[in-house]
């Protein structure tokens, strides 16, 4: 927020990254670079490892092999998990949920000041939820709740923003409003990475795409990465997955 461009201090380098669950690889030998200030979609079939990769970039999962080097500290990262991973029954108000963005940015023990309250109100206005401050989050629709989470990200003001399926189960108007915010973040120089299912949304709004089917299929300009041939390869790979495959042994 605040209209100041959030210059990204660095990109994200992935080198031969393999991520496993109980030694079963969900992402295999992936290498590439997310440029600072880029707007990148992670796309691919169900079970392709998209959320797993995002969690590894965030630092929640550690690669079993390879390295992820980020030009960002943990407090530089704004992360929106998949809706299914969020417990909305927790008795917390809309305002307090948004205020968590201020604490994420500058530490849980910092006193919340009047400036933060004003910024939280501004963030709620920016997502069209003025007047919702005292509502418990459990009383909101899915779209309104997603707007609250975007307001929290606005308050957090992070230079790296990671979004996992931000527009799933959200109506067209809310999706449009939230895409506008994503485009604004990109315009401000932030680095934005989003896991998305909808190829039309990716083509319309995301200049860069990383297409994954557990292995990297393509990474680059969206229209090239999402070529019919690459999509066919991704689909064919998804049909061949062995859920019980073991991790490859590291190269000698
Ligand atoms: N916590 C976990 N424990 C064990 N296996 C997991 C876990 N999370 C994901 N997986 C497995 O890892 C693989 C990749 O899952 P992931 O959720 O990253 O895929 P995705 O591309 O995000 O899928 P979707 O589009 O369906 O959300 C899948 O086979 C999934 O079952």
Explain this structure.
Helix content is 35%, strand content 23%. It has 252 residues and is of the alpha/beta class. A six-stranded mixed sheet has the order 5-6-7-3-8-9, sandwiched between helices. A three-stranded antiparallel sheet has the order 2-1-4, covered by helices on one side. The longest helix has 16 residues, at 172-187. It binds adenosine-5'-triphosphate (ATP). Adenosine-5'-triphosphate (ATP) binds at residues 21, 26, 44, 46-52, 243.
| Annotation, overall tally of beta strands | 9
Overall geometry comes to globular
Question: Mean pLDDT, as a whole number?
Answer: 89
Amount of helix:
25-40%
The helix-and-strand class reads: alpha/beta
Main beta sheet, described?
6 strands, mixed
Task: Using the CA coordinates, give the radius of gyration.
Answer: 18 Å
Distance between the termini: 49 Å
Low-confidence stretches: 1-8
Unique ligands: adenosine-5'-triphosphate
Biggest sheet, strands in spatial order?
5-6-7-3-8-9
Query: How much β-strand is present in the residues?
Result: 15-25%
Helix-strand pattern: EEEHEEHHHEHEHEEHH
Tally of alpha and pi helices:
8
Could you outline the blueprint of secondary structure elements for this entry?
Blueprint: E1 12-21, E2 24-34, E3 39-43, H1 50-58, E4 65-70, E5 77-80, H2 94-106, H3 114-126, H4 142-156, E6 160-164, H5 172-187, E7 191-195, H6 199-205, E8 208-213, E9 215-221, H7 222-225, H8 228-239
Parallel strand pairs: 3-7, 3-8, 5-6, 6-7
Antiparallel strand pairs: 1-2, 1-4, 8-9
Bound molecules: adenosine-5'-triphosphate.
Residues 21, 26, 44, 46-52, 243 line the site of adenosine-5'-triphosphate (ATP).
Family: Belongs to the ABC transporter superfamily.
Domain ABC transporter: 12-239
Keywords: ATP-binding, Ion transport, Nucleotide-binding, Transport, Zinc, Zinc transport
């Amino acid at each position: 927020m605040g209209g100041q461009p959030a210059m990204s201090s660095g990109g994200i380098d992935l080198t031969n990254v393999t991520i496993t669950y109980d030694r079963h690889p969900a992402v295999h030998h992936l290498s590439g670079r997310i440029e600072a200030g880029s707007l990148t979609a992670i796309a691919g079939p169900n079970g392709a490892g998209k959320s797993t990769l995002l969690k590894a970039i965030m630092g929640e999962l550690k690669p079993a092999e390879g390295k992820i080097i980020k030009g960002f500290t943990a407090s530089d990262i704004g992360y929106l998990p998949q809706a299914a991973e969020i417990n909305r029954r927790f008795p917390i108000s809309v305002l307090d949920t948004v205020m968590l963005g201020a604490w994420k940015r500058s530490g849980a023990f910092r006193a919340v000041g009047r400036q933060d309250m004003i910024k939280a109100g501004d963030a709620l206005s920016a997502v069209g939820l003025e007047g919702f401050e005292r509502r418990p989050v459990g009383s909101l629709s899915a779209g309104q709740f997603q707007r609250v989470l975007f307001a929290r990200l606005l308050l957090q003001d992070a230079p790296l923003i990671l979004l996992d399926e931000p527009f799933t189960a959200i109506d067209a108007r809310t999706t449009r409003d939230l895409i506008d915010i994503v485009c604004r973040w990109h315009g401000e120089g932030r680095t934005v990475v989003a896991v998305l299912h909808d190829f039309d949304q990716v083509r319309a709004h995301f200049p860069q795409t990383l297409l994954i089917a557990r292995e990297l299929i393509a990474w680059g300009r969206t229209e090239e990465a999402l070529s019919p041939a690459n999509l066919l390869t991704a689909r064919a790979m998804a049909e061949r997955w062995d859920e019980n495959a073991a991790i490859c042994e590291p190269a000698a």
